[in-house]
Structures are given as structure tokens and as C-alpha cells.
Amino acid sequence: MFDAILIANRGEIACRIIATSGRMGIRTVAVYSDADANGRHVRLADTAVRIGPPAARESYLVIDRILDAARHTGAQAIHPGYGFLSENAEFAEACAQNGIVFIGPTPAAIRAMGSKAAAKHLMRAAGVPMTPGYDGPNQDAEFLALQAESVGYPVMIKANAGGGGKGMRRVDTRDNFHAALAACKREAAAAFGDDSVLIEKYLVNPRHVEVQVFGDTQGNVISLFERDCSVQRRNQKVIEEAPAPLLSEELRARLSEAGKNAAGAVGYVGAGTVEFLVDGEGGFHFMEMNTRLQVEHPITEKITGLDLVEWQLRVAAGETLPLKQEDIAMRGHSIEVRIYAENPAHDFLPSIGKLAHLRFPQHSEHVRIDTGVEQGDTITPFYDPMIAKLIVWDETRELALQKLTLALSETQIVGVANNVAFLERLVTSPSFANAQLDTSLIEREQDWINAAEEAPEDVVSALAALSMILRESSAVTTKEGNSPWAQRNGWRLNGRYARNFAFKDGEHDRSVLAEYGERNYRMAIGDSSLTVSGELSEDKSLTALVDGKSRRARVIEADRKLHVFLEGKRHVIAYEDPLDVEMGHVNKEGGFLAPMPGRVIAQSVKAGERVEKGAALMVLEAMKMECTIHAPAAGRVGAFHFNVGDQVNEGAELLRFDREEEGK
Description:
The chain is an alpha+beta fold. The chain has six domains: 4-103, 3-Layer(aba) Sandwich (Rossmann fold), CATH 3.40.50; 132-201, 2-Layer Sandwich (Dna Ligase, domain 1); 204-331, 2-Layer Sandwich (D-amino Acid Aminotransferase, Chain A, domain 1), CATH 3.30.470.20; 340-451, D-amino Acid Aminotransferase, Chain A, domain 1, CATH 3.30.470; 458-575, Glycoprotein, Type 4 Pilin, CATH 3.30.700.40; 591-659, CATH 2.40.50.100. Helix content is 25%, strand content 33%. The chain contains 17 helices and 39 strands. The strands form nine sheets. Strands 14-13-10-11-12-15-22-20 form an eight-stranded antiparallel β-sheet, sandwiched between helices. It has an eight-stranded antiparallel beta barrel with strand order 24-25-26-27-28-29-30-31. A hairpin with a 2-residue loop joins strand 11 (221-233) and strand 12 (236-242). The chain starts with a strand and ends in a 5-residue tail after the last strand. 43% of the residues are buried.
């Protein structure tokens, strides 16, 4: 076994590898960019080495810097994690040339499966079921359009070297084909250095099911069962579960056998995933093979009781697989949700900022958290905005879903927009609860997911006001010590002091008139009146009595908002400070503000050009996604304030646009 390994990655996977390696007595070396200098994986590793500036292309993707770090620290092997260089055949070869073990498949296997077109040819020869389409070398746009016509719409355009939802577009009509093709090629070139694409028949409402395979250097290949990854947004997975629900044992066996055949066809070594689309008639079709460990591997670990990272390390050290196929059994059901710093209400645009408050449910046999961040860390615009993976397990899917719902209600995040509330609604939707899974589930359940929030109870507003009062009353405003004039507790020489709090909870305006008493506060909220008292602890826990009833909450203040976590529910309450005269952020008339921090990657029109409503004006890219700025009406572009390649901050004015008056 290795004495030391280097982890050529960051975030939660680096932390996970460090934990397993430490348990095995292996010294760990972390690498980091300037953006990750204080990253959790850096703090956990035995040794850490700086490899460059924040941009991945100048740090985590620079092979020579990774190898130099390994040589200088005496690391005998490199674990690539997932993403970055994990599926880079050149990197695997460079490791071998430098006498360093690459913890993953051979360069030949990576190349064979790294090109979707080449993989399809190989899988077709191995007898693995395929989706109709075109995967040849001709990349002429008109030729590809003819192929799409021949396959029949809808079709899916996919980047040949792609993954993670990049360089993918569904196209329903020929009229939209060329624009989608150009966008796919642009994304593919930027993300993978290869703009070639393939065309596949788009299967309407399929399930996305993948098989976890494992091979060793002695030629043994096994299956560790399947996972359902159908619940997706923008072709990226949101929820995964194992085993896939409502599969017949016969279909499960066929999928497992096809996965092993695919891995065997390339002499696969290590952990890999063979992905299939399953139709509604019991058929399935090969999509691709990911030649690495997957983000969702923990749910396979939960149902098998195995540590796949440990298996990777043992296989890379030349050991045979720890178990044979007949020795592996699964027990129970496991579900994983991906918690992201993103805004579901605004097309899942990524969010950046400091994690002012971060609290997860307690780890147990049933609940596991994989994360690369801690409270106080910052989500940056440079990498994937995942905050954590929340994994639950129980004997049945129904029990696991109960555990998941409870665990999400106990998850508290303040400082960045996040998808926790979205996930709570999603996992309680009828389709998910009844395991009616397919890749259109989120779209199908939009009414449930986006149902209007009920007006908050009066107690929420009362606790928000109480927390502000208690914060103020604990502060001394002058150097006069215990003088009554130095206190902020509402003390008056004659009479009782009352003040008004103006709150806004979602779409609901709330006014709280608080009258200060000796030991409590009388709060008038609409037609209601509550008597409230309480104490605020250092961790922002609020213990209160509301009309004699005990209530416990946590109230976090950040960016002029109060985040009230009460009895498994969260409320974000904006408040107005009458003493704060700072002007709010106002969009300049005729201007467009950047909806997210990112880099300008395209200007679709020229300054001075007239456009129709809906025309693409410019494209931003950040955190694995593109955001196209469209014209809200017919008009003329006045001027662009940024050039292609420029980095912009959220809220920056991007361009000047002059609307045409209606009727002209």
C-alpha cells in the first residue's frame, strides 16, 4: 500500500479521500489554488501545496504543477477525484512516465470512453444496446442538420468529449437546430478543448439509470448494482438513489450485465460508471461511461456497506478486488441530494458569498454529509457551487424519504442563495414520493414546487422582532457603563416605549408594533397581540415564551435580512432600518445588470444594431453554466460596457439598450 498520495482535486471529494486515506494510515497531500488557500481540504490534509491562481486552467488543470507537487512531497500516487483531470488520458500517461501511480483506469480506457462517438462504436461492437443517432467525424453544420432530420426530432446534441451537462442541448425543431449547435460547440470548446458533437434521438421522458462497475489489474470486473439519476435540471443531476426503484429483477440483471460488458470491453481498472437511458417499455440504451468515481457514489456505499475510495486505493496498489460478485449484496435504500449555492427562483443561477451560518443534521447511521466547506468559508465564482451532498439510508425507500425530509428541514444555510427549500418541495412532490421518475420530473412538478408560500404565522414575525430587540439591548452605546442612558433596552423615565418593525417575508408585508415592558414585550401584529419574552445565546439560538408557550428558534442576521429557522421551516425576512439612508441598488433605466458573476464569452450583436424581442445580446459563463442575456423588447443596442473575456461582478451594468416605443 502507498505511504503517501496526492489528491489532485478540491472540495468534498478531496475531503472524502483524505478521510479514507487517513483511516488506512496513508499520508495525504492536498493541492490548492489561491481561491482555496483556506479550503477545508487544505486544513484536513497532512501537507498542502499551492499550485497557482484561482482559474482552474491555471491551477487544477495544469499537469506539470500537479506532478511537481507530487514529486516534491514524495507522493507515490495521485487520486484525481472527479472533474478537472480525472478523465484526462494525458495526465494518466504523465503520471506513469514520472513513476507515479494514477488512481484510476488506464489511459487507453480513458481515451476509449472519453470520446462519446468512439465509445458508441466500441459498445456497439460489445453488444451493448445503443440509442439511434450519428456519431461520425463529419462536423459540417448542414450535414449534422440532415442527420438530425434523419433521426427524427426531438434530438439531443452532445459534446463528444463532454460531461456534467456541458455542451448539451435538446432540439425539438429544425428551426432551432443551428443556434443550439453553435451553443453546444462553443461550450464544448471552452470546457473540453474539443468542439465536436454527436446527434442522438431524444427519448421523451426516459429514466437515467447508471451501473457502478469496478475492475482490477487481474481482469476481474464486477457490478455494484445501479443508481437512478433521473431527477435533473439542465442535464445535471439533482437527486440520486440506489437501488433504482420499480425495476424488475430481470431488468436489473440485464443492466448489470451490460455494465460489466462495457467495462470488460476496455479492460477497465478501478471505479467507473456506465450510464443508460431506460425507456418505458423495459428497454435501455447506452449513453456514456464515466471513467472515474461519481459524485453519487455514497449511495452505493450505503446499500453495500463498502468504501469505494478504499477499493480504489487497493486496486491501484495492485491488489485484487476485495470481493467477488457473488459475495456482494445490497441492503435497504439510499438517497442523495446535492445542495448547491444557487437560486432556483432565478433559473438556478449560481450564488457566491461567505457562508455566514452553516448547520447540517447530525451524522448517524441514517444520515451522512459530504462537504468541502465549513461555516465562514466562501463560495467563489471559480468552481462548481456545490455546498454539500446530503445522503440518507434506511431499510425501505419510504423510510429513507422520511429521513431525507427531516434532514433537509434541519439544514441551515445563510450567506448565499441555496436550493434547500427547493429540494424540500421536490422530494415531497407526488411524482418523487411515488417513484414516478424520469428526466422531466422537475418540469412536470413545477406547480407543486413553485406553489405560493403561505403567509407566515405571527409568531415568526414576533420572534424576528424579539431577536433584534435582544441584540440591541445587549449592546452598550457609550462608555458610561451601567448608566440607563447607555442602554438600548427601551428604558424610559416616564411611560412605556413602543417601536415599529417593518418586515417583508416573501410577498407578505408584516408590521410589528413592539411595546417594551419590564420583563416582556407586547407585540401587535395586524389584529393579533402577543406577549413575548426570551433569551438569545451566542450561537444565535433563541429561547422564547410566546403567550406562555415555549418556542425555540435560530435567527441569523445577514445582508439586511433575518433568517428565522423555526420548527423545521425557514423564513427569510427583509427589514427596513429607518436610520439607514443608504440608497438601494437601482437598475439604471435602459441598462442590463449581470444576474450572476461571470465572464463574458460572446456578444451576439453589434453596438448600434436593431434587434427584435427575445434576441440574444450577450452570453455570460460561470460555474459550468451559460446565461444568455435576451432583449426584453424590440429596440437598439446602445453600447456594450464589457468585452468578450472580461470578468463581471453580479449587478454590473452590461450594456445600454434603447427600447422602441410600441406601435413604431
